Amino acid sequence: MVFTTRHGGVSEPPYGSFNLADHVGDDAAAVAANRLRLARVLGLEEIQWMEQLHTNTVSVVTELSSEPVATTDALVTTVPNLALGVLVADCVPVLLADPQAGVCAAVHAGRLGARNGIVERTVETMRDIGAEPGNMQALLGPAASGDNYEVPAAMAADVEARLPGSRARTKQGTAGLDIRAGLVRQLLSLGITAIEADPRCTIANKEFFSYRREGTTGRQAGVIWLTGK
Asked: In whole angstroms, what is the distance from residue 128 CA to residue 10 CA?
């Protein structure tokens, strides 16, 4: 399981420098070079990406494709060395694995997807192919924190109703969301206890790309794969 920062690549500002997204306006050659660099550093042939449209759709992948998996926000696999990637710039990247069953997943959990059950659906899909929540490990990466993720009060209440534990109060005293906190609570309710959550806030920490802070910007990634036998 790996999370990247915005440093170490070849992209020019405002995508500087390790942008891994090919849909944000960056030079395609720079993105390709960054993706190749990431794969080589991790000892991988390539990384499977997904289209990410803030859905709650989960896709099981059995072979690597050079194209992103269409219209999905979570990837699940049982194939060793088939690396799964999730791109974020404030949304929560969630990496899940059951090493005993040989199942892993990468999840893009933005506000809408998290509200609509993308993580819960991913866990269900993993269970359907042999994983057990009690054996699962979860790692949640850097994301927008409740201190800085300001939203209308009605939106905070709506997300809280669907993802308990996510409503927050910002540093300014306004309504906010901490999607990561809500997801930790949800994972615990699903029987997953081996959970690690990186507390860093992408909005506050300039080591990371942040759509909320910058608007036009790049994307960092979370990557997970099963070790080959």
From this structure: 41
> Is 18 within 8 Å of 8 (Cβ atoms)?
yes
The number of residues making up the chain comes to 229
Looking up tokens 């399981």 gives 1
Give the type of residue at 212: R
Residues 42-100 pLDDT 10s: 999 899 999 999 999 999 999 999 999 999 999 999 999 999 999 999 999 999 999 99
Which pLDDT score is estimated for 112? 97
CA distance 106 to 2: 11
User: What is the rounded CA–CA span in Å between residue 221 and residue 89?
Assistant: 9
Looking at residue 228, its pLDDT comes to 73
Phi, psi angles (nearest 5°) of residue 68: -65, 150
- Where does the chain have alpha helices with state H? 28-41, 111-115, 118-128, 153-162, 179-189, 211-214
Cα separation, 78 vs 69, whole angstroms? 16
Q: Identify the sign of the CA torsion 161, 163, 169, 170.
A: negative
**Exposure string over 182-195, b if 16+ CB within 10 A, otherwise e:** bbbebbeebebeeb
- Is the model's pLDDT at 227 over the cut of 70? yes
The helix/strand/coil state of 25 is coil
Query: What does the alpha-carbon distance between residue 12 and residue 198 come to, in Å, rounded to a whole number?
Result: 27
